[in-house]
Amino acid sequence: MKLKNRTILVTGGTSGIGFAFAKRLLDMGNTVIITGRSQQRIDQTVKNNPGLIGMAADVSDPNSVEQLAKELRIHYPKLDIIFNNAGIIHEFDLFDEAVTYEHLTAEIATNLNGTIYITKALLPLLAQQQEAMIVNVSSLLANITVANAPAYSATKAGIHMFSDALREQIRAKGKNIHVMELCPPVISETNLTDTFDEGFLNKMISLPLAKLVNVGVKGMEKNKIRVNAGFTKVMRFSMKFAPDFITHTWGQMLLKSN
């Protein structure tokens, strides 16, 4: 897919992975719209980065998603790429009686439901285009859980399965919409890395954000169905042979590092 003169929506685009991809795609000559919950952060990001377009939206809220879709249909009818990136991570102990049900499911609402809501709301618009693409950001943790953030791992595994099912439905409908799953390892420049200590990050599993953007963009250009970046390649391969052993060993290492 040629990544020029496209109209692209990036959710969670005010920081981290979303912002880095939004900037790169903007520099490549595309119209890029970023979303986030905070209007203030949207306004500041757009002010500091001329050319970006901002729309406040909460991907976990169906009403907010529907309003966003309505605005996009009116003002950006040529939308042809969705980059589903919005995500949060919570660490919690399942034995802790102070942890509420709302806290347990917050990541599901944003990471998994948000990806599904945005995709469903905008799929008809993408289907009108000559060629389109949906990029869903999952994770290394779609393949192996991080024990102190159990719901996060579950959401990323769900995004993996949803992406596969979505791709097959699109194929059955004969639509020219590519679906790419982007699977980053831990990215040290984002705000989702407090789960790991810096020594472990630097030595084993981290990847610079710029390198993730490079491999992600190349994957999009080649219509890849999945991009396993950095350490994710190693872990995905290893899980084919000893999944239970690796899950246990990995989980214990991470719990002891915190």
**Overall form:** globular
State the order of secondary-structure elements, H for helix, E for strand.
EHEHEHEHEHEHHEHH
Helix content: 40-55%
Total strand segments: 7
Strand order of the largest sheet: 3-2-1-4-5-6-7
- Secondary structure class reads alpha/beta
What count of helical segments does DSSP give? Answer: 9
CATH topology group = Rossmann fold
Report the radius of gyration as a whole number of Å: 18 Å
Strand count, sense and barrel status of the largest sheet are: 7 strands, parallel
Mean pLDDT metric: 88
When the domains are counted, the total is: 1
Family: Belongs to the short-chain dehydrogenases/reductases (SDR) family.
Protein name: SDR family NAD(P)-dependent oxidoreductase
Domain Ketoreductase: 6-189
Organism: Paenibacillus rhizophilus
Quick recap:
By secondary structure, the protein is of the alpha/beta class. Helix content is 50%, strand content 13%. InterPro entries: KR_dom, NAD(P)-bd_dom_sf, Sc_DH/Rdtase_CS, SDR_fam.
Summarize the SSE layout with pairings:
Elements: E1 7-10, H1 16-27, E2 31-36, H2 39-48, E3 53-56, H3 62-75, E4 81-84, H4 101-127, E5 132-137, H5 150-173, E6 177-183, H6 198-205, H7 209-221, E7 226-228, H8 231-238, H9 243-256
Parallel strand pairs: 1-2, 1-4, 2-3, 4-5, 5-6, 6-7
Please describe what this structure looks like:
- Helix 1 links the parallel strand 1 and strand 2.
- The chain has a single domain (7-256), classed as NAD(P)-binding Rossmann-like Domain (Rossmann fold), CATH 3.40.50.720.
- The chain is an alpha/beta fold and 258 residues long.
- The model has no long low-confidence stretch (mean pLDDT 88).
- Helix 3 runs parallel beside helix 4 (101-127).
- The protein is globular, with a radius of gyration of 18 Å.
- It contains nine helices and seven strands, in the order βαβαβαβαβαβααβαα.
- A seven-stranded parallel β-sheet has the order 3-2-1-4-5-6-7, with helices on both faces.
